[in-house]
Amino acid sequence: ALPSATQNEIDGDDARKLVANGVIAVSEGANMPSTPEAIRVFQEAKILYAPGKAANAGGVSVSGLEMTQNSERLSWSAEEVDQKLHYIMENIHENCVKYGTEPDGYVNYVKGANIAGFMKVAKAMMAQGIV
Question: What does the record give as EC number (predicted)?
Fold first, then answer.
């Protein structure tokens, strides 16, 4: 399933119907289209659930790459941008797996994305001597 329209598009009842009908993955294509109850249903059913903060990172990343090109007066080919985006998304996935793998092997991508984000900010703060 790819909820992509609006916030809270999938609630707990919708999630239970998806699970009952054999959904194997839900990847958010909007900002918070699944309610907290729906997320719990997906995680309890151990389906692959990719939260928007990880699954949607590609658009934000390409915007950042565009800003880099503009500020440094660079011009990358579409292939170069795609290669950089692939690296970014692969890194996001690896960090979600690193921080979100449960003892039973299930990858909790919400947990992984949250911890990875926290670690990135914490390391930056430590590098600047803030903490």
Answer: 1.4.1.4
Closest by CA to 27, choosing from 63, 62, 51, 45, is: 51
Q: pTM higher than 0.90 for the full model?
A: no
Give residue 81's identity as a one-letter amino acid code.
V
Q: Token pair of 30, please? A: 């909007």
Q: What does the alpha-carbon distance between residue 131 and residue 125 come to, in Å, rounded to a whole number?
A: 6
Q: What angle do CA 67, 121, 112 make, to 5 degrees?
A: 100
How confident is the model at residue 131, as a pLDDT?
Answer: 83
- Determine the length of the chain: 131
Amino acid in position 122:
A
Pick the CATH number of 12-127 from 3.40.50.150, 3.30.565.10, 3.40.50.720, 3.30.1490.20: 3.40.50.720
